[in-house]
Predict the structure.
Amino acid sequence: MSDQINTLEELSAVAGVEVIAEETISREPVRDELGRAYATGKRKDAVARVWIKPGSGKVVVNGKEMKAYFARPVLQMILRQPFTVAGVEDQFDVYATVKGGGLSGQAGAVKHGVSKALQLYDPALRGALKAAGFLTRDSRVVERKKFGRRKARRSFQFSKR
């Protein structure tokens, strides 16, 4: 076993093919002049603009505290998920503006925006957020109503006579 191939150059010489070494992509933090990271999150018809900066864990959505805007505990839990997965609870302040959709879609949009902003602020958190699926936009939207139907797929009630 003395003729073992050890490097990519030797492999390309033996195989007669050009081998391109994969470079590890080093991402750099993206922050504005105030030290904030910005991202846009989307879910259903809701669009959220999210800014995060180091702080005490205060979350403001459309000028209101998180507990006042998202009254249901489930929606508050959805907003906290990216921080728990990344292991940075109560280390960032969040300022978000949300438009469109209902409360559930808006909570999902803010979660998506927070996740994207966290990975822009600290690229080391990207792996955990991506593994949890928080960086992917949930593409499910409401299906349109079709003509000749009562809803998107529901037919009108059938009457034999």
About this structure: The chain is about 30% helix and 20% strand. The beta strands are 37-43, 46-54, 59-61, 64-65, 92-99. Residues 103-121 form the longest helix (19 residues). The chain has a mean pLDDT of 88.
